[in-house]
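Notebook entry, structure prediction.
Reason for the run: the old model in the group folder had no record of what sequence produced it. Starting over properly, with the input documented here first.
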Amino acid sequence: MPTPLRTLPLLLLLLSTPLTADDRPNVLLILADDIGYEALGCYGGLDFQTPRLDAMAAAGLRFSRAYASPVCTPTRVSLHTSLYTTRHQHTIVLPVHRGTKKTVDFQAMPTFAQSIRSTGYATSVTGKWQLATLEYWPDHIRDAGFDSWCVWQIWLQGKKTLRHWNPTLNQDGQVRDDIADRFGPDVLVDYVIDQMRDAQAKEQPFLIVHNEMLPHDPIIATPEDRRLGRPAKLDHMIHYMDHLVGRLLDAVDSMGLRDNTYVLFMGDNGTHEEDFRNPRASEPGQRRHTRHTRAGNVDGGKFKLGDAGTHVPLLVWGPPSVPAGQVCDDLVDVVDLFPTFCELTRTSIPEGLSIDGHSIAAQIHGQPGPTRPWTHQGIGKEENLFDGSWRLFRQSDALKDARSLPAEPNADNQDPQAAAARDRLETAFQTITP
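New structure, fully documented this time:
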């Protein structure tokens, strides 16, 4: 049938309009496993070597007060759903390593990846997916909003698997059989780079959540350790993780993607203190696992609701609009990443969806933005609110004086400022309901 005359002008316009690539920005989140703020030199850390992360901070933006829950599952569910632990109720580690049939229901609690994927983004995820046992829930990752993945399948045929050497990695539904002699974190970085190249070739924006498996124990020899013939140490695992972050930043640069790609680095919880052996433990004021910063000693870490267990690094690097070398002191909660990613990718948050975070996109671009009065963290039956100076625990009713971090002693009940903080935070707790 001939084309109706009235449609010819529109048809000619479409044919004469050059096709252009989707100019929406890319987002790459690197979520490291078990690393507190004090492990990075750019945060004043003195025990570990992190040259690439320090350079990332120098060329980008460092958030000095970012917080998460003190263990992986609560943090990761809060990340994907923008819900406090009180509301999503995943307050302990989901026992995927024991093959649990329990799962995180991302249909009942929508994710940012679901929304961003619906707008045409290529979405992928890597590393530790401790949110479902894939043998029982093979479509869980796709349902969560990711079309492609290369993740550690923690449970396989009744046994827990390995993540580092001889890794068991599930890529898009199939366990890879070509990586037995490779180091798992290296394989994941290769996958991320391949995903970026594929999206670039298709002129499609990408969202990648790279769950870096380092430096989570067991403490193992990295490829660098094997090459140098030296023993495995947490220090070396952190240094190798730093090297892998550098590989990803170099890849973004070499592909010409930096001007339109936001790269974020964040920890999921504090450092597992038992993995660090303090060489100064015999000195006065030192403990076996004390870490050191220019501001003072850090004791505690993963599993604990104090500053050492919840204060994590957050760096942003990429487009020229990210101010180089600046530090933002605004409080940031992991739940804030959901609306931030949506704003950066020009994605609307579903109407009627209740979330607990607010976007920090303005701060990422060096502008004043909405600030939060406190952050919320939870593990097990306990939770706390931290307002930057005081930390109140809901169940125990303990109040910590955090005005001189990393020291965090019990508050003086006779201090009028402590009493005012308690009243303020107790009132805030009433607004956080399941």
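Summary: The chain has a mean pLDDT of 94.
The old model has been moved to the deprecated folder.
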